[in-house]
Amino acid sequence: MGVIQAIISFYNVDNDEINCINTSTHKIVFLLKNPLYLVCVSQTNETEEQLKIQLLYLYNQVLFSLTSVQLTKIFHDRVNFDLRNLLVGTEIYMDELSRKFGVDASYLLKSIRCLRIKNDLRNKIGEILNNNHPKNILYGILTYNDKLINIVRSKKHSVHPLDMHLIINMITSSSFRSVESWSPICLPKYNSRGFLYAYVSYLNSVEPSNSENSPESPMFPTSPTSPSLSKITKTDICLTLLSPNKDAFFELSNCKKKIEKIFNESGIFNKVLSSTNKVELDISDIGIPHLRHVIYKSTKYLQFVETKRLPPYDNHACYKRLLRSYKYLESKIHGYQKDLKFSYMLDKNELTLLWIRDDFELYASFSPFISKTIAYNDLLLIEKWFKKQDNLFITTTQIF
């Protein structure tokens, strides 16, 4: 730490700021966010900008737990304060976020991963959330694992992808399945100076029991939500409600129960969970020979979908290698001085391509044994296929 401080101070003397040190084997990237200094040492082919974005996420993860006001005050009062004392219990968020940088395309694309369901079902879910939300919430978010199903929000406040990534990281990193959680959180892109309060709960699917011994009598309830005659299953669908009111827990808990009941009565759970068998795009759906993997991002909605990770990318190391190839292509396009729209890379493992237009970004991996020309023509067919789909993204915003 002393060496890092000395290097930073050396540049500060001349009112300069250090950004990166390149050696023959390592890249050392600095992000200076007073009062914190974040440093990354990397041996990957990621660029300075890509590594700096990762450091920025980690910095915002700290704000997610503390707010910028608290952080500044702490170090103003005690310059040598050990910040780990205040971050006890949140290490899991930092660790999981660091792990995801190498295995989740969300951070490369700066976009939100969406659940693939039919638009009419997605809109119906949004209407239920919108019609039953409490008065004092800013956002209502419904997710399936790490994928967004729908979101309702106040008219004045949209959700930045960075804030959404931090929320989803919190949900997927913690054990919320068996409890209702109530936590103060800071959304840095919404307001880095203050807290919101997050109600998080996984929803229960209630199915009538098929037991032949169930008595048929007015003395026994026959409602599909009756606990005595029903099978209750904890789903992978999670409801998150964000409120500025720290005393709103019970109101939001009642709201969750109401939404859960409507979902059960209208069959929403069965429809969504039956859709999850096809939630991930399959290469065979697109019908392009030699195609191995595709990521399609809508730049209009800042959302993306990804094909299922089939061999060889079902292997963790192979998928990390693929993402690094995509990062390399992205750096070539955005680092080029001219208006470059297409980039490719061929190695012994695969042929990877990136095609960027005003309304989309298309990443694809092919067998290394086909030509660049064939792969480019296939990209045109893939783009046409995605344009025909109406179940990929949240296109109708539910606003209250």
TrEMBL record:
Subcellular location: Endosome, Multivesicular body membrane; Prevacuolar compartment membrane; Vacuole membrane
Membrane topology: Peripheral membrane protein
A GO-annotated cellular component: fungal-type vacuole membrane
InterPro entries for the chain: FUZ/MON1/HPS1_longin_1 (IPR043972), FUZ/MON1/HPS1_longin_2 (IPR043971), FUZ/MON1/HPS1_longin_3 (IPR043970), Mon1 (IPR004353)
Keyword Protein transport: yes
Every FUZ/MON1/HPS1 first Longin domain range: 1-97
Record-annotated FUZ/MON1/HPS1 second Longin domain positions: 136-259
Keywords of this entry: Autophagy, Endosome, Membrane, Protein transport, Transport, Vacuole
Annotated FUZ/MON1/HPS1 third Longin domain residues: 291-389
Gene Ontology biological-process annotations: autophagy; protein targeting to vacuole; vesicle-mediated transport
PANTHER family: SAND PROTEIN-RELATED, VACUOLAR FUSION PROTEIN MON1 HOMOLOG
Function: Required for multiple vacuole delivery pathways including the cytoplasm to vacuole transport (Cvt), autophagy, pexophagy and endocytosis.
Family classification: Belongs to the MON1/SAND family.
Official protein name in the record: Vacuolar fusion protein MON1
Species of the source: Neocallimastix californiae
UniProt lineage: Eukaryota, Fungi, Fungi incertae sedis, Chytridiomycota, Chytridiomycota incertae sedis
